[in-house]
Amino acid sequence: MKYILTTIILAFGLLPAFSQVRIDTGKYTDWHVDSHGNILINTSREILKFDNKGNIIAKWTPPATNNIIYIDASDNLRVLVFYPESYQISVLDRHLLEIADPLDLTISGIYDITKVCRSISGGIWAADMQTNTIYELQNNLRINLSFSFSNYGHVSEIKKMVAYDQQLWFLMTDSTWLVLDFFGQYLTRHYQKGLEKSQISKQIVHFIDEGDLYSYDIKLKESKVVASNVAAIKGCFIYTDLLYLFEDKCITIRNLNTDYTD
Q1: Is CATH 1.10.760.10 what the domain over 5-260 is classified as, yes or no?
Q2: Which residue ranges make up each domain of the chain?
Q3: What is the pLDDT of residues 49-81, one digit of tens each?
Q4: What's the DSSP call for residue 68?
Q5: Do the beta carbons of residue 102 and residue 63 sit within 8 Å?
Q6: Which of 2, 36, 121, 241 has an alpha carbon 20 to 30 Å from 204's alpha carbon atom?
Q7: CA nearest 90: which of 70, 113, 112, 107?
Q8: Which helix (H) or strand (E) holds 179?
Q9: pTM of the model
């Protein structure tokens, strides 16, 4: 694992003076901020968990040579780690300890799963390439319900899948978010530039476009600028009065004045 360096500095200029935490992570492919403000990043070879002061509080390495493709940390107590090379999901607790043996998704009778996410009912949503179908699997991996994705394209066009607020959100290769209900019925589509890098976990999300930080109401589809001169290649997130900026090889956490949060 690459050396992780955390520095605390005092920054000025973007907003009123605030303390700043910088975490030098090295390359990572995915990130998630949990409901306690902790950060999980996926380096493909391991998962690292930091608190909002930049300290590493847990890490986990997959078995054998599996490469981690996706993590779903929407439930702090049940983090899902997907590696499709073996069609398996590891389930971790909040300390990134394995709760049980990895789940073998082939037990469900589905053999070409490309994307997964947590089901609100406690199971797993899975996108199957071979049949172009979205399945909800129960805890025992039996199929609970399914629907064809054919009306919206092919599951190979799905970059990410998220279950939120009784809806399924699909980030497509054209960088739009397609939103369906749990039976595959069309609800809406979000075309907002920059939103493709947002974490969909609450009604007001944030994104950066051309140096401006925006808040976006996913129900009203309304956006507004909340700060300027902000940069983050991989996206951003606001937790209480903390702004997380995800760069290519580092993460910056800024303590913002509450006037600038939504």
Answers
A1: no
A2: 5-260
A3: 999 999 999 999 887 766 777 889 988 899 999
A4: P
A5: yes
A6: 121
A7: 70
A8: strand 177-180
A9: 0.88
